[in-house]
Write a structure and sequence with these properties.
about 425 residues; mainly alpha; 15 helices; 2 strands
Length: about 425
């Protein structure tokens, strides 16, 4: 049984690495593709004299929101379906949709086409990652779960460490082969790599044994599943029920903050730090390189000390203050250094939080609970992405006076994100309890 569980974990980690390698290769180029399709970019970005990136901030935010608008309800329903039908079936369908959406990016020539492809990618993501987390939690014991989920997050981070450089190399190689004239095709080229790896990941998951909880009748309606989950929440001890509710609220709030930050940071980098796509590739690589050791250490420590909460709090505190400093940084090297503590916050807290959530929930509804958490988190990102795009577009050209200081409007999205992070940290400290 242990050997079988080890094989399942290994295949899931490898599949996660493969598809995230393609995804992370595409992401450094994606903001430039949005600006090109909008018409803000009319040549290769590194050849442009200037890029008024903030004029495309709202469209970029809408595309981020479209991903989450489809990912959130899909994550909710796919968690339930995986409890009813089995994890593997849902994951394979999701990975195939990753392949289809990647082809859609390469074929897109209008904002609407790009929007449809991005929304389809959100469906794919919602069908894969919450279910994979539940599957991993199913096949591991409680005090192996932290290491396993840390390894899962680490597989993503290793892909994000390597992928951006591959994406930039594909883009640069396309330009060398075909010249700078068709800049739109060059910006789309990493999508081909994503399509190939998505299909490879689907083939990797296909041989896995089917996993379903077996506690629900396969003919059950989704509504009855939620009724059972609601009854379960009411039957849990008050401290555990309250802890799950706070984790859910923090999921919404942290997603909201992340949605603002993702949109504002990409536009800020292009507008003020560097217009070359290679720098965004380096930024993503540095982020992953900083988060990776923190992630591995987090999983080891939580299982070793048999506590999750202290590690999560440490992660929350570690880098949130950087959000108040980053919007003042224009030097590329200093900017890279400034995001390191922020990325370590992500690396330390995320796997420990997922392990804590698994500890709090019974196995037979774990897929559903993971799906609900993803639904709330992604719903927060949806709202935050739209607000972040709107704020970045209208505030970037503005200057505001604070006492004797003249502050650029671009700082507001970053500071808002930092304040939301402080709120979630306080709530987590006060109201979340670990099971004994």
């Amino acid at each position: 049984m242990a050997h079988k569980a080890g094989l399942i974990v290994s295949l899931l980690l490898l599949a996660s690495f493969i598809v995230n390698l393609g995804f992370s290769a595409f992401m450094p180029i994606f903001p430039y593709l949005v600006l090109a399709i909008k018409g803000v970019l009319k040549e290769l970005p590194e050849l442009a004299m200037s890029v008024h990136a903030y004029t495309g901030a709202l469209e970029f935010g809408i595309l981020m929101a479209a991903f989450m608008a489809t990912r959130a309800p899909t994550a909710l329903s796919s968690g339930v379906l995986s409890d009813l039908l089995g994890r593997r079936k849902v994951m394979v369908m999701g990975l195939f949709l990753y392949f289809v959406s990647s082809l859609g990016f390469f074929l897109s020539n209008t904002f609407l086409e790009l929007l449809i492809s991005r929304a389809l990618q959100g469906v794919a993501s919602g069908m894969v990652w919450p279910v994979a987390e539940a599957y991993l939690a199913d096949v591991t014991g409680r005090w192996q779960r932290g290491k396993t989920l840390s390894s899962y997050v680490a597989s993503m981070l290793i892909a994000e460490l390597i992928g951006p450089s591959i994406g930039v190399l594909i883009y640069k190689g396309w330009v060398m082969l075909y010249g700078p004239v068709d800049y739109l095709a060059a910006l789309k080229s990493p999508a081909i790599f994503l399509a190939v790896l998505s299909l490879a990941s689907a083939l990797m998951v296909l041989p896995l044994p089917e996993a379903a909880s077996g506690s629900f009748n396969r003919g059950s309606e989704l509504g009855s599943t939620f009724k059972r989950l609601s009854s379960l929440m009411k039957s849990l001890p008050a401290s555990i029920s309250r802890s799950l509710k706070v984790i859910y609220f923090n999921g919404v709030a942290n997603g909201f903050a992340l949605g603002i930050l993702q949109t504002a940071q990409a536009i800020y980098v292009i507008q003020y730090v560097s217009k070359d796509p290679a720098f965004l590739g380096i930024l993503f690589t540095v982020f992953a390189a900083s988060a990776l050791p923190a992630t591995l250490l987090s999983g080891y420590l939580t299982d070793r000390i048999r506590r999750r909460k202290p590690i999560i709090i440490l992660g929350y505190f570690f880098g949130r203050g950087c959000l108040f400093i980053i919007p003042f940084v224009r030097d590329p090297l200093i900017f890279l250094l400034a995001v390191i503590p922020l990325s370590m916050t992500f690396g330390v807290s995320m796997p420990a939080m997922r392990a804590l959530q698994a500890d709090l929930t019974p196995r037979d509804v774990r897929g559903t609970v993971f799906g609900i958490q993803q639904f709330l988190f992604n719903g927060g990102i949806f709202a935050g992405s739209i607000l972040g795009g709107f704020l970045t577009k209208i505030l970037t050209p503005e200057i505001y006076q604070l006492l004797s200081l003249s502050l650029e409007g671009i700082i507001i999205p970053f500071w808002l994100t930092g304040l939301v992070g402080a709120l979630t940290t306080i709530l987590f400290i006060l109201y979340v309890n670990e099971p004994s």
